[in-house]
Design brief:
The structure is a single chain. With 357 residues, the chain is an all-alpha fold. It has one domain (2-248, 266-354). It has 15 helices and no strands. The radius of gyration is 21 Å and the shape is globular. Its main location: membrane. Belongs to the UPF0324 family. This is Membrane protein.
């Protein structure tokens, strides 16, 4: 009976998030039909629609359980499935120096973006979200990072909304930048892969420059996406250590720590340090890299991950008080702008150092 009662409790919120996510995905498909590609991704539309619904109609208590389940558990499942779409083997063709340079640019961008956010007065978690979104893969990185650092729904919505808007504007500007600076297809592909937030936006930005730019841009973008695993692992470890230090009871660590002090424990198991979905993400990535996941399995998992992520974003939108987002908006968009400028400068620097023609 408990299971049925639990399902009954979740149904209203799940139904609402499902409807909003479907509308968002239809909106994305409509853009593809009209323009050839979506300028605003479905997950961004889901956030906007969810927030608009909450702001206009409110959210009765009966929806809370299902909305919270969608925003947390469904998102975590989506992150695990995302790992199946990433193969480390693809890096072999990129070149050692270029891969190292991309990793360096991402790490530098993370540090600079986070520092900018904090200097502008953004809360710690919001600064981390903006930094990860700017440096790695935009909305997907924000969505994956949020549960690791236990970010508030308002912070997630603010960072995704303004990062997405800035990303679209940047994609529109990039082709003019290539013409103004006389960049070759290779240079432009690397630059776009290093700076554009989302994979579909990389395709949109590089398509006017030809197939070479598109292929290189996608590969560079893949390397950035691969940084998501190490980054969220590092954030997860840091968050758990801080939580244990501040409140050991809440993390179930007292017994283990007492055992260590008494000489009866040799350390903490990995399951205590990393959230389950991070372990699942890395496991899926490893299976994909070893060719143990055939395309017949990977492609449906990619689609399911995208669907679940959009649904989770709808739930996050339903959890947001739009007034709080607007209050944080000015600082967030300014931090995102400065971070993008710094990322672009780092990308130009890498092209110069590697002497890519």
């Amino acid at each position: 009976m408990f299971i049925f009662d639990r399902i009954k409790c979740l149904l209203p919120g799940l139904a609402l998030t499902t409807v909003i996510s479907l509308v968002a995905q239809l909106g994305e498909k409509a853009q593809s039909h009209l323009f050839g590609h979506p300028w605003i991704e479905g997950l961004v539309l889901a956030i906007v629609l969810g927030t608009a619904y909450r702001s206009i109609f409110g959210l009765p208590d009966k929806f809370d359980a299902g909305v919270n389940f969608s925003a947390k558990t469904i998102l975590e499942v989506a992150i695990v499935l995302l790992g199946a779409s990433i193969s480390i083997n693809a890096l072999a063709g990129a070149g050692l120096y270029l891969v190292g340079g991309i990793v360096l640019v991402v790490c530098l961008s993370l540090a600079v973006s986070y520092t900018i956010g904090r200097l502008l007065g953004l809360p710690n978690r919001l600064a981390i979200l903006v930094a990860c979104g700017n440096s790695i893969c935009g909305n997907s990185a924000i969505a994956a990072t949020a549960p690791v650092i236990d970010a508030d729904a308002e912070d997630v919505a603010a960072s995704i909304a303004f990062t997405a808007v800035l990303g679209v504007v940047f994609v529109l500007v990039l082709p003019f930048l290539q013409a103004a600076l006389g960049m070759s297809s290779t240079q432009y592909g690397i630059f776009a892969g290093l700076t554009v937030y989302a994979v579909p936006q990389v395709l949109a930005a590089t398509a006017p420059a030809g197939l070479v730019a598109t292929q290189i841009g996608t590969l560079v973008k893949l390397v950035r996406v691969l940084m998501l695993g190490p980054v969220i692992c590092t954030l997860g470890l840091g968050a758990r250590r801080i939580a244990r230090k501040n409140n050991p009871d809440a993390n179930g660590m007292i017994a283990g720590e007492q055992a260590v002090r008494a000489g009866r424990g040799a350390g903490l198991p990995i399951g205590k340090l990393l959230p389950w979905f991070i372990v699942g993400f890395l496991a899926m990535m490893a299976l994909r890299s070893m060719n143990l996941l055939p395309d017949a399995v990977v492609i449906p998992m990619q689609h399911l991950s995208s669907i679940l992520t959009v649904m989770a974003m709808a739930a996050l939108g339903l959890s947001v008080d739009v007034r709080n987002v607007m209050n944080a908006g000015g600082k967030v968009i300014f931090a995102a702008k400065l971070s993008l400028v710094c990322l672009s400068m780092a990308a130009f620097g890498l092209l110069a150092i590697l002497q890519i023609a």
